[in-house]
Structures are given as C-alpha cells and as structure tokens.
Design goal:
Length: about 90
C-alpha cells in the first residue's frame, strides 16, 4: 500500500514501500556526517551527565557528613547542659 505524504503545499507525494526502503537505506555523505555528529553529541551528553551525577553524589556525601556532625555537636551540647546546669 503506498504511503501519501503532504508537504503542506499543493503537491502530494506517494511513496511505495520499495521507494521508502530505498530512501531509508541510502547512506549518503550527509547522512554519514549527521550520524557522526549525533554520535559525538550523545557521547558529550553522556559524559556531562556522568560528571553531573558524580558532583551530585559528592555534594550529598558532604552535606550528609556535615549534618551528622551538627547533630552530634547538638547532642553533646544538650548532654553538657543536662549534666552541668547553671
């Protein structure tokens, strides 16, 4: 069954399955360049995401340790106040 495609203008294009297979299967210079650029972008995006995840993990670790230290200091302060009231 042919596939109809309208470009938004007055012309309507009809592609057969054979034509579509040929169009999608062609490896032209521009498609090779596009695929290479897309792969480069994916790799860059992946590296940036890994870096952001690493920074987030380090930040959460630091904040957790600071939080634990503050809680320990607060408990020590409360114990000292209970043991040595004014």
């Amino acid at each position: 069954m042919p596939i109809k495609s309208n470009t938004g203008g007055e012309k309507e294009f009809v592609y057969s399955k054979e034509d579509l297979r040929k169009i999608e299967g062609e490896e032209t210079e521009s498609t090779k360049e596009f695929k290479k650029a897309l792969e480069t972008w994916y790799e860059k995006n992946k590296a940036e995401k890994l870096w952001a995840d690493a920074k987030r993990k380090v930040l959460l670790t630091i904040l957790t340790r600071i939080g634990i230290a503050v809680l320990i200091l607060a408990l020590i302060f409360l114990l000292l106040r209970m043991l040595f009231p004014k």
